């Protein structure tokens, strides 16, 4: 029998004067794969220029995109916008070879914010968080789990984590919150 210790419902999971960990509402997300020459037509359909530098982000309204590799992007949108993106990108099929995969049900987003947020991330992230500029994102590992970490501000981060690994990542983050609050 599998026991899931968290209900995985959006909301604040832990809050101290210096730190907050929240599970964000569900969003639409897609993996978009295409050759570099397809970035301009795909960008027109999505409503913004696709960044070509790994880790670079773009946003337009509720849509965001991050370049994860030389031919790979993660597109995030409001859940209600998923069908529009699918239909728009489908119009490229005849002229731009691509793959668009809906990952919406696979991942959850955890928001970590506060003056000790960066310190909390060092508990499971082998990279120096300060090396990630505000407004960028990285696919990386967090305690052995593949995640995409978005740096939204000096003290605000998002972690996209596979739903199956979310209990592990949340346990580590919540334990870290308690340890930092006690210290």
UniProtKB/TrEMBL annotation:
InterPro entries: SoxG, TrmE/GcvT-like
Gene3D superfamilies on file: Heterotetrameric sarcosine oxidase, Probable tRNA modification gtpase trme, domain 1
Pfam families tied to this protein: SoxG
Domain of life: Bacteria
Protein name per the record: Sarcosine oxidase subunit gamma
């Amino acid at each position: 029998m599998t026991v899931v210790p968290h209900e995985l419902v959006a909301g604040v999971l832990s809050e101290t004067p210096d730190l907050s960990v929240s599970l964000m509402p569900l969003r639409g997300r897609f993996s978009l794969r295409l050759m570099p020459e397809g970035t301009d037509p795909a960008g027109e359909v999505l409503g913004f220029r696709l960044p070509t530098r790994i880790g670079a982000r773009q946003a337009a309204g509720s849509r965001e995109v991050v370049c994860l590799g030389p031919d790979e992007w993660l597109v995030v949108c409001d859940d209600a916008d998923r069908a529009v993106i699918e239909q728009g990108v489908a119009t490229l099929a005849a002229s731009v070879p691509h793959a668009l995969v809906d990952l919406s049900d696979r991942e959850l987003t955890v928001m970590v914010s506060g003056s000790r947020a960066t310190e909390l991330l060092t508990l499971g992230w082998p990279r120096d968080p300060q090396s990630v500029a505000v407004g960028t994102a990285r696919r990386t590992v967090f305690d052995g789990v593949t995640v995409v970490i978005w740096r939204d501000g000096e003290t605000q981060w998002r972690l996209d984590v596979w739903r199956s690994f979310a209990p592990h990542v949340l346990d580590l983050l919540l334990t870290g919150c308690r340890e930092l609050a006690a210290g």
